[in-house]
Amino acid sequence: MNLTLKSSTALALALGVLSAPAFADMDAAKAFLDSEINGMSVLSRAEQEAEMQFFVDAAAPYTDLEIKVVSETIATHEYESTVLAPAFEAITGIKITHDLIGEGDVVEKLQTQMQSGENIYDAYINDSDLIGTHWRYKQVRNLTDWMVGEGAAVTLPTLDIEDFVGKSFTTGPDGKLYQLPTQQFANLYWFRYDWFNDEKNKADFKAAYGYDLGVPVNWTAYEDIAEFFTGRDLGYLGVEGEVFGNMDYGKKDPSLGWRYTDAWMSMAGMGDVGEPNGLPVDEWGIRVNEKSQPTGSCVARGGATNAPAAVYAVTKAIEWLEKYSPPAAAGMTFSEAGPIPAQGNVAQQMFWYTAFTAATVEPDLPVMNEDGTPKWRMAPSPHGAYWKDGQKIGYQDAGSWTLMESTPVDRAQAAWLYAQFVVSKTVDMKKSDVGLTFIRKSTIDSEHFTERAPRLGGLVEFYRSPASKQWSPTGTNVPDYPKLAQLWWQNIGDAMSGAKTPQEALDTLCADQEKILSRLERAGVQGELGPVLNEEQSAEYWFAQPGAPYAKLANEEEAPQTIEYDELIKSWQ
After folding, report:
1. Which residues cross the membrane (predicted)?
2. pLDDT tens digits for 371-409?
3. Which of 100, 118, 169, 481 has the highest count of CB atoms within 10 angstroms of its CB?
């Protein structure tokens, strides 16, 4: 981040924002294009200037406003806050405070604004995981109507909504767009490409397990590879210290909930088929009816949160954490565990967020070659024994701009201008180059990222492939994300600590979820979109119905299957 902060200061000086310009003009825009964008855009210079002229002109009625927006703290949002917000202020005259706080704190602020009606922030960057909440409560502006209504005069003509790769994630069942993506990243399989291609490792693995070492297609193969590398002496490859075959985290902390809802259960095969999320049962195990009303979470009501596939998912995660991971991992949070693979002693990680890519390609890391290419690669995550073709297989985070109905119109209009500025085609390629959290197809397909792709370990290939469509955020089945999400880390934490068995923890979790669904049903606050719980039936009744929940498999250990990485990449192309 040092480079980002240095460029921020230099840019601020160049634009004159440190001396608080009295009015907006194109001189500041041209200085920004020269010093920061410097040709790194899918647009020509003339097209960039045309977009900047729009912001200069459209901002004129709002130059006396001081706008506050908020996001979680990741590299992409740090760039927005420290570089793009000062640039926007210099170009438009609208003062922007872009706060960076924890993801849980963002949700808390948003929830407080929803409950109180007080305008805490003029715009939020919050995960599209809240799409079911936003669609049902109707407390955010739907952007489809906004852009042709009160927001028409401040909507960038070249915004090009169809260019956003996460548009389907932020669209409700009514076809309306409720949020606009500003960063996006997936959880994928991460592995040491150099170790997997080492002839001794390949020969020893084949001798021990009877099949080729490669990217695991299923969890059985992942487990074999984890066992093979844990404790293995790789000194002959220059690796110092103990080697581990798995990396994960297990501290009882809000981030532990993300570990499972984002979307470990779908990888195990808990839910139904369907893109971007399983229907009628999703990766939270919540079932909905034909009107998208939640009808249950426990197996007794047709849900799957405590089904055999869910128990299998949690059991395997705990087993691998205990057997094949660094001892400290069990006490780590998401942010603490993220950098560990880059330290050079982890062979693979099934659940690795691509948001860590930028920090994992830094020069001089043990996982980097001298020529700037990585020793590691990323690939699709393997799937569990209950998984079937057509089911969701992984998670994408889509941090997205959200305008609350409680925000005064003029403040929402000014905030919307800033939101569009940081996702504009003028800015997007440079922002993507910094944070590597792609949101636009035009950026992903650009010549710049074709050239940079060999240094990014498969990230570009993944986002250009049809496989990426099987990775999606939380869908619309979840009716109140803030209330339900906190149940996950608390209950899963009991299983991780050994206080409860996975079955006991998931029984409590699904019951707790149904208590909230029942309260929402009684309160009627979501109208005809709110929960309508099914009557309880026997597990055998629901197992006999088509789709999820599924009965326990007689054998949860599939025949192991791997694929050679370079062949996998060819199949994407």
Report:
1. none
2. 999 999 999 899 999 999 999 888 998 999 999 999 999
3. 169
- For 314, counting Cβ atoms within 10 Å of its Cβ (0-12 exposed, 13-18 middle, 19+ buried), the class is buried
CB 48 within 8 A of CB 33: yes
Looking at the DSSP assignment, which residues form a beta bridge with residue 171? 177
Looking up tokens 């309306």 gives 176
User: Are the C-beta atoms of 26 and 49 separated by less than 8 Å?
Assistant: yes
Question: How many other C-beta atoms lie within 10 A of the C-beta of residue 408?
Answer: 11
* Chain length of the chain: 573
Which residue type does 24 have? A
Whether residue 2 has pLDDT greater than 60: no
Domains and CATH numbers, the chain: 2-178+397-463 (3.40.190.10), 191-395+471-573 (3.40.190.10)
Average pLDDT over residues 496-506: 97
Bigger pLDDT: 15 vs 47: 47
159 to 69, 148, 533: CA distances (angstroms) = 20, 13, 41
- What 318-322 contacts at long range (C-beta under 8 Å, 24+ apart), as own/partner pairs, is 318/250, 318/495, 318/496, 318/502, 320/223, 320/226, 320/246, 320/248, 321/246, 321/248, 321/250, 321/496
Residue 34 has which token pair? Answer: 């020269």
Cβ partners under 8 Å of residue 263, min gap 6: 187, 283, 392, 394, 395, 472, 474
**Which DSSP symbol is given to 297?**
S
Q: Cis omega (within 30 of 0) on the bond before 276?
A: yes
The Cα–Cα gap between 361 and 358 comes to: 6
DSSP state at residue 68: E
**What is the residue type of 566?**
D
Q: Which helix (DSSP H) or strand (DSSP E) does residue 324 occupy? A: helix 308-324
Task: Please choose, from the candidates 277, 290, 304, 318, the residue with its C-alpha nearest in 3D space to the C-alpha of residue 473.
Answer: 277
**98 three-state secondary structure:** strand
In angstroms, rounded to a whole number, what is the distance separating the alpha carbons of residues 153 and 227?
60
**Best CA proximity match to 55, nearest among 29, 79, 16:** 29
